[in-house]
Amino acid sequence: MATKIDMAKFAKFCKDMGFIFQSSEIYGGINGFWDYGPLGVELKRNIKDAWWQDMVRNPPPGPDGQEIRMVGLDCSIIMNPKVWVASGHVGGFADFKVDCLKCNSRIRADKVFWLQISHGFKIYPLIGSIEADSRTDAADYFGKNLFKLTKKFNSPQDAIDAFNQGKYRVIDAVELYHEDLAIISESAEVEVTGVAKFASGQNGCPVPGCGGDLSPPRAFNLMFKSHAGAIESDDNLVYLRPETAQGIFVNFKNVLDSSRVKLPFGIAQVGKAFRNEVNPRNFTFRSREFEQMEIEFFCHPDESMKWYQYWRDLRKRWYSQLGIKSDYLRPREQGKEELAFYSIGTTDIEYLFPFSDEPQELEGVAHRGSYDLTQHANHSGLGEKLAYFDEAAWMADAGQRTTNAFEQWIKTANPSKEEIEKYKFYPHVVEPSAGADRFTLAVLCEAYTEEQVPDAKGNLEPRTLMKFHPRLAPIKCAVLPLVNKDGMPEKAMTLYRELKAEFNVFYDDKGAIGRRYRRQDEAGTPFCVTIDGDTMKDDSVTIRDRDTLQQRRVPISQVRDEIRAALTPQ
Ligand code: GAP
């Protein structure tokens, strides 16, 4: 996707083609929930399959050229609620939101922005507010609408000049609220509670035409709640998991005991996650129900930075290999102020979606230290039973001890904490956490192409096509008899039956061949195989390439290998 696309037009295209539908659309839909249509479900399945194949079944060698061990899990969505206390989600998994006291809209506080221009000693009144994805997008909007927005100022041209000289700041609702409080209490450390409203008289609510007063930013836990069992009480309160990761941590010991994997190794899971997002937006980008593809990679603490680097590089490369142009991909190391308190480092792999001027997160690769295992060890009461015993390190030092029984050694040799941790410790974790729906959206945006191509008479006509990587394309090949006679349909049907045993293929004998090609272009089918008069004579067919429009003649017996070759991971 080289240029911006009209998201409304794009969403309509996705609906018309059967990629993505609004959930329960006949009842007016439901905000933040989406369904995948016949083509969409194939696309998303191919994405998850490619991830599982490339990350779990056949990951590339590790940083020192060694094979790496990956295993999978499929955990329940509802878990013991203590999991979410231990993980910190009950206490801290919250966004700040503001409520409009006039139109009752509820908006994420870090997505509401104002502009403040200063000129010499003069500070102009706040302009705005608007709702935007990022500060850059907000600044962009303010820049484009400056003339209109500064109209009411006494000296609008001075304000415009000051803006053009960079003498301005874009401030969000959380920052503004803290500044208001700081003025009231002369302390920026005040809790975000206790003030009935703010932003009044300074263009409060960003909903077009409203401008009402806003409530102070309030923390809003993002976990969906339910009850397990017949009685709705606090005793049987449960949560829909907000991430798949915790299922992996709580099964760490089960996996160790059942698979006898040794460090370093990874556990992977693909599955649904639920977050009661304050403002679901940008099509499927921020939904309330979505799928994650997560890996927890366990390693020795001394080697963790090496593995962090490995996963950052590998995950970015994976997106490029599946057709995301590197210009639109950006790995961004989070600043210290953004990091979770336990995280040693996190890199967001971002993609320049067409709805924003700033790249947005596709995946986070986080170095989580030993935080999660330690939390579960403490909260479950299992303690060091959740730690890893490094048998190889223990046996390597066997000659230096009087006993080879670890517990006996602790009792008799009185080793220091450091000596014990040489053999028994909580591994460090590197977590590449990707969104299956976000990547599906990125793939759709990237593939969407409008161009002019010559028709049979050489006149240019518009064509819309989806330039999917063949591995991800919902349909791999269309089999098309040129005409519905002379034995062509029978020949085509034989080929179709042979191919569909291995790939998702489509048989189409309806309409002019040019129209059939266009339909496949819109579906993103990389190959169209046509059975024509020559096929009946010499068993050769044409293979048409979706992107170049070129047609090659190949023996019919070669078609399956041609498709296989295009689907082989690089
Ligand atoms: N276990 C770590 C974790 O869940 P996260 O950054 O909150 O980290 C990981 O989520 C990925 O899940 C994101 O990079 C994104 O691709 C996807 N994701 C998160 N929230 C989402 C939402 N509301 N809608 C769609 N995808 C989402």
Q: Explain this structure to me?
A:
The strands form eight sheets. The protein has a seven-stranded mixed β-sheet. It has a five-stranded mixed β-sheet with strand order 24-23-25-26-27, with helices on both faces. Strands 6, 7, 8 and 9 form a four-stranded antiparallel β-sheet that branches. About 3% of the residues have low confidence. The protein is globular and about 90 Å long. Helices cover 33% and strands 25% of the residues. The chain starts with 6 loop residues before the first helix and ends with a helix. It is of the alpha+beta class and 570 residues long. Helix 2 packs across helix 16. The chain binds glycyl-adenosine-5'-phosphate. The site of glycyl-adenosine-5'-phosphate (GAP) has 19 residues, from strand 14, strand 17, strand 20 and helix 16.
